[in-house]
UniProtKB/TrEMBL annotation:
GO cellular component: cytoplasm
Entries under Gene3D superfamilies matching the protein: FAD/NAD(P)-binding domain (3.50.50.60), Guanine Nucleotide Dissociation Inhibitor, domain 1 (1.10.405.10), Guanine Nucleotide Dissociation Inhibitor, domain 2 (3.30.519.10)
Single GO MF descriptor: Rab GDP-dissociation inhibitor activity
InterPro entries for this protein: FAD/NAD-bd_sf, GDP_dissociation_inhibitor, RabGDI
Protein name: Rab GDP dissociation inhibitor
Gene Ontology BP term (one): protein transport
Entry's family note: Belongs to the Rab GDI family.
Gene: GDI1
Transmembrane spans: none
Length: 385
């Protein structure tokens, strides 16, 4: 079936099936910089970061000045939020005089919120739109992780202003292309359009991958769950609804791109709803069109209905596509058989959870933590030393 003519040429579209933004000062950008793959990529900033509260969307405040201007809070709550942000910005783990009697290594976020008297709605946007927690389990855990996440958001905001997120021109498909080019420089070999017919084992340990009668010898295999159904377990489902719009998302100041978080408590759910929107400004769709993707973890037998709160914020939708995928995790760590399996992508519209998985796989394979200090040296540079 031919696509509707009003959308223009199909070659103008580069639509991500799993949308992810990069935090400007986050682990993902550190990995790209460290490997030098940034030479093959060009990024553009996401124009706005928003949160849903009490039926409306508002810009996410990321410091005390923005907290004072934010329509998210009343006058007295703004003062309390300002005090909270000042506490976070001034906190020094080595200087007790900055800690106001709170040790973030042991105190929970429940205790920190209580200390500043923050309302549940304010806790929602701090925990879910700033710290980007997936659910409320963080509330009863040591606050240091949340502190570091908020600092990451603030530092990413400070890098470019407007929002903490960046996104590659022409979409995320540029990332594997960039890594493929980089791999070739380092002596990597790519075999394209080759089916994986069999994983070859000897004495329970992987020794190769068979394709079209040939076996590529190896000591380790890294792959996503789809290749190893017997070695993974299902842990849930994610629903993503890809929408084509002919206008910016309403109430975002006509932003050409946005990240919008709907905290779980605001819509009486167990998981947040994420809305990621990009446009022709990012070379991912035709001029005057926008691509918005609403995603969340499935909780009922009506996944599309669960996204209604996000879809309702988009205004008129020209076309939409619903995609429901199972989420898998590996059963074993891979050290015994040499098969190292990644987790399925979650519903978040940023790369921070994915980076944790990448670092976990790296440590399981090498036994060492992934250190991102400086840039990787090329082979010829190493040879000269």
């Amino acid at each position: 079936m031919a696509p509707p003519t009003q959308f223009g040429r199909d070659r103008d579209y580069n639509v991500d099936l799993i949308p992810k933004f990069a935090m400007a000062s986050g682990e993902f950008v550190n990995i790209l910089y460290h490997t030098d793959v940034t030479r093959y990529l060009e990024f553009r900033q996401i124009e706005g970061s928003f949160v849903y509260r009490d039926g409306k969307i508002s810009k996410v405040p990321a410091n005390q000045q923005e907290a004072l201007m934010s329509p998210l809070m009343g006058l007295f709550e703004k003062r309390r939020a300002k005090s909270f942000f000042e506490f976070i910005q001034n906190y020094d783990f080595t200087n007790p005089s900055t800690q106001q009697g709170v040790d973030l290594n042991t105190a929970t976020m429940v205790e920190v919120y209580k200390k500043f008297g923050l309302e549940p709605g304010t806790q929602d946007f701090i925990g879910h739109a700033l710290a980007l927690h997936l659910d409320d389990s963080y509330m009863n855990q040591p606050a240091r992780d949340t502190y570091e996440r908020i600092c990451l958001y603030m530092n990413s905001m400070a890098r470019y202003g407007k929002s903490p997120y960046i996104y590659p021109l022409y979409g995320l498909g540029e990332l594997p292309q960039g890594f493929a080019r980089l791999s070739a420089i380092y002596g990597g070999t790519y075999m394209l359009s080759k089916p994986v017919e069999e994983i070859v084992y000897e004495n329970g340990k992987v020794v190769g991958v068979k394709s079209e009668g040939e076996v590529a010898k190896t000591k380790a295999v890294i792959g996503d769950p789809s290749y190893f159904p017997e070695k993974v377990k299902e842990v849930g489902k994610v629903v993503r609804i890809i929408c084509f719009l002919n206008h910016p998302i309403p109430n975002t100041g006509d932003a050409d791109s946005v990240q919008l978080v709907i905290p779980q408590n605001q819509v009486k759910r167990k998981h947040d709803i994420y809305v990621a929107a990009v446009s022709a400004a990012h070379n991912v769709c035709a001029k005057d069109y926008f691509v918005a993707i609403v995603s969340t973890i499935v909780e009922t037998d009506s996944p599309e209905k669960e996204c209604e709160a996000g879809l309702a914020l988009l205004g008129s939708i020209q076309e939409k596509f619903v995609d429901i995928k199972k989420i898998y995790e590996p059963i074993a760590d891979g050290k015994e058989d040499g098969i190292f399996i990644s987790k399925s992508y979650d519903s978040t519209s940023h790369f921070e959870t994915t980076c944790q998985d990448v670092k976990s796989i790296y440590k399981r394979i090498t036994g060492n933590d992934l250190k991102l200090e400086g840039k990787v040296k090329k082979m010829d540079e190493n040879a000269e030393q």
